[in-house]
Amino acid sequence: MSVDWTTDLLGEPYERHVIELGDDPDGEGTITATLVRRASTGSPRAAVIYVHGFTDYFFQTAMAEFYADRGVAFYSLDLRKCGRSLRDGHTAHYVSDLAHYDAELDESLRIVREETGLPVYLAAHSTGGLIVPLWLHRRRRGTGSGDTGIAGIMLNSPWFDLQGAPWMRGVGTQAIRLAARVRPGLVLKLPEAEAYGSSLHTSRGGEWDYELAWKPLGGFPVTVGWLSAVRRGQARLHRGLDIGVPSLVLRSDRSRIVSRYSEEVETADAVLDVRQIARWAGCLGDEVTSVPIPGARHDVFLSRKEARDHAYEVLGDWLDRHLP
């Protein structure tokens, strides 16, 4: 099956392909996903598919160039209702079940395997770092033989548990699940949280320029239906997965979760509790390499230069050990 590629908004050498997904199982009309690739020359030795997190999309060309320089063909997926795939009438990032993403993940993997014929690695950030191993676990069980076509995964600050007070992971989660059955689109009233976005974007003195309509400084609204889906996914992770491939888990060495910007946000995870990431990393199964990056932000590859260079060094060493 031929794939039509057109020039992406990032310009050459980036191209995109729209994956038609039909009617939204959550009732918000027609949906698509968007696969982006860095058109490559030469003979790569592997391929990677990157999956973003919540209030995010692919714009990190420095990461794509890093992979390309190491002989890895780079692809990235903007999931349904996210980034390039967000349309009028959509609730940004909303799904009632993380398994809905299997459709675009399966199709992306099919395209990449067909185009390259190479071992495929997965990279993911934050909520994507929960979505990807859950999908891989289901896919591995579904193949029977365990042949998923995936050779390894690299997770950047994956969302393995709900941060905050302990009651939020107990009675709070039960309340969210009950509310999701009745009013899944109900928006949670959460404190204003622009601290992380303010540390990144050029409009606030940061290094990174991206589309604020797709990655607003304060994040998209959080609905109870979506959060309930995340909590079910996290509960499944906590029971242990069998992804069947080696994994690298990167995180900051400390958290500083605040709603308003301060200098501390520049050198800590302002979104997730890194202790939870460390605690649950072993639930992935198979070989797990878990590494804290001192002074890193929530997205370790959007950290200040020293921490960012360290993260790329760790990733490069892991790739050197695992790439064919």
UniProtKB/TrEMBL annotation:
<dbReference type="InterPro" id="IPR051044">
    <property type="entry name" value="MAG_DAG_Lipase"/>
</dbReference>
<dbReference type="GO" id="GO:0016787">
    <property type="term" value="F:hydrolase activity"/>
</dbReference>
<protein>
    <submittedName>
        <fullName>Alpha/beta hydrolase</fullName>
    </submittedName>
</protein>
<dbReference type="Pfam" id="PF12146">
    <property type="entry name" value="Hydrolase_4"/>
</dbReference>
<dbReference type="InterPro" id="IPR029058">
    <property type="entry name" value="AB_hydrolase_fold"/>
</dbReference>
<dbReference type="InterPro" id="IPR022742">
    <property type="entry name" value="Hydrolase_4"/>
</dbReference>
<feature type="domain" description="Serine aminopeptidase S33">
    <location>
        <begin position="43"/>
        <end position="263"/>
    </location>
</feature>
<keyword id="KW-0378">Hydrolase</keyword>
